[in-house]
Automatic annotation (TrEMBL):
<dbReference type="GO" id="GO:0003924">
    <property type="term" value="F:GTPase activity"/>
</dbReference>
<feature type="region of interest" description="Disordered">
    <location>
        <begin position="31"/>
        <end position="51"/>
    </location>
</feature>
<dbReference type="InterPro" id="IPR012340">
    <property type="entry name" value="NA-bd_OB-fold"/>
</dbReference>
<feature type="domain" description="CP-type G">
    <location>
        <begin position="164"/>
        <end position="341"/>
    </location>
</feature>
<keyword id="KW-0342">GTP-binding</keyword>
<dbReference type="Pfam" id="PF03193">
    <property type="entry name" value="RsgA_GTPase"/>
</dbReference>
<dbReference type="GO" id="GO:0005525">
    <property type="term" value="F:GTP binding"/>
</dbReference>
<dbReference type="InterPro" id="IPR027417">
    <property type="entry name" value="P-loop_NTPase"/>
</dbReference>
<dbReference type="InterPro" id="IPR010914">
    <property type="entry name" value="RsgA_GTPase_dom"/>
</dbReference>
<feature type="domain" description="EngC GTPase">
    <location>
        <begin position="172"/>
        <end position="339"/>
    </location>
</feature>
<protein>
    <submittedName>
        <fullName>Uncharacterized protein LOC105136864</fullName>
    </submittedName>
</protein>
<dbReference type="InterPro" id="IPR004881">
    <property type="entry name" value="Ribosome_biogen_GTPase_RsgA"/>
</dbReference>
<feature type="compositionally biased region" description="Polar residues">
    <location>
        <begin position="37"/>
        <end position="48"/>
    </location>
</feature>
<dbReference type="InterPro" id="IPR030378">
    <property type="entry name" value="G_CP_dom"/>
</dbReference>
<keyword id="KW-0547">Nucleotide-binding</keyword>
Amino acid sequence: MQIPSSLSLFRHRTPTFFRHRQNHHPLLITASKHHQNQPNVSRKQPPSKNLLKAKKNLTSKKDFSTLSPILSPDHTPTDLSDSQAIGTVAASQANFMRVIVTTEPEKIEDSSSSSKVGTELLCVVRAVLKKIKRRVLVGDKVVVGSIDWVDRRGMIENVFQRSSDILDPPVANVDRLLVLFSVEQPQLESFVLTRFLIEAESTGIPITLALNKAELVDQQVLSDWDTRLRSWGYEPLFCSVDSKMGLDSLASVLRDQTTVIVGPSGVGKSSLINALRNKPNSQVEVDNWFDPIMGSKWFEDQRVGKVSTRSGRGKHTTRNVSLLPLGGGGYLADTPGFSQPSLLKVTKQSLAQYFPEIRKMLGDNEQAKCAFNDCLHVGEPGCIVKGDWERYPLYFQLLDEIRIREEFQLRTFGTKREDDVRYKVGDMGVQQAEPRLEPKKHRRQSRKRINQSILDELNELDDDEDLLDDENDPILRALKNENL
Ligand SMILES: Nc1nc2c(ncn2[C@@H]2O[C@H](COP(=O)(O)OP(=O)(O)OP(=O)(O)O)[C@@H](O)[C@H]2O)c(=O)[nH]1
Ligand SMILES: [Zn+2]
């Protein structure tokens, strides 16, 4: 078994970058206010020896004032040390993240012959980020520190603010949604397509609409769809993975961007992902990201599908997604997005703005606004949205569906705002709604509570010892060694 030299991950507890920024960064000062004193914690149950050491380290030595500020997306740190770099999280598995370096310290660039940009680093997430619930997602731009350039390891120290994040699949900083349908097999159907488009529009992320399997129908059918979809407000790209038609245009649209493909089953999403990666007839690469570094045996043991003895449920069952680097630059998520659009983020009031046709009617007529601000555009007097467009009936149909859902929410939870309800996918994938707790900012965590949650999390690690036993887990072993 290959044992990574993860010791080096833990050497620099307080990276110079953060110490430096603390002097002038207002966000940092706010963020660190509540954590300045040393925590004073009582323990409920005796944890195992090695974790006890880890806890002691966290609760006595850790300086909480270095809690990381949220970095603005276009902030470029000029004071990166030799062991720091900026990168993009391309994949995550168990406790590890694969980060591709995008910006390196200038010193490194000068002194070494080859650039470190593009280097893949195997990283852990700095414990304090987990404690303050700063989740690191695939797609996140991050600061990596404590880098060992030889062994290609590091520790994620901070996360830049996201331009967007989507939940299905969980990816940050998505630049584009590629809505993929096929003209045949399965046949293109306007209502299903509209549902996907509305769901995509509701993310606010730019959309490209592509229609695959174009080789299966004649030119007339393509041109009819082209006319129709243009009247909806889209410029469809026709393509065929089989005949390679249109793949170059698609590749150039996706260049230098992070893209998630969405669309129904069977339209060719996986085939297209493979084609754009020039990997004909191969499985989408998901599983071997970490193997070269971790050694597959060890990694297998950490994988999805292990069943917890306690809960009887699978652990780590969250969907793993990786960003696959595209030849011409940019990334493609290997996991297609929302296979069944739920439209849960869409309200009666917001639905209209997700129809380009309605947007155009309202936008084109600066002074000709609807008589009422909250007009639903269903034929109210003074409404400027007339019924002379193809998808008007579909708008009604979706409005009806959303109205029924909102009434159900109102009856069940006393609120119809999507934000107040969260949906848990329960057994057998059935969605269950439950009222959301008060937003976090109204229940600011006390220091004691934060400290307790640190201990709780470490206790959870204790509980998970079947999964992360210290002899086999390089990180726990490193922690243990460091504290000896
Ligand atoms: N005729 C034709 N068939 C295609 C084309 N692209 C993909 N297919 C076939 O369509 C079928 C479905 O392709 P997939 O790539 O699995 O589709 P998918 O969208 O990933 O499907 P799910 O995994 O169910 O979501 C496969 O049999 C492909 O070979 C194409 O351009 N033309
Ligand atoms: Zn109106």
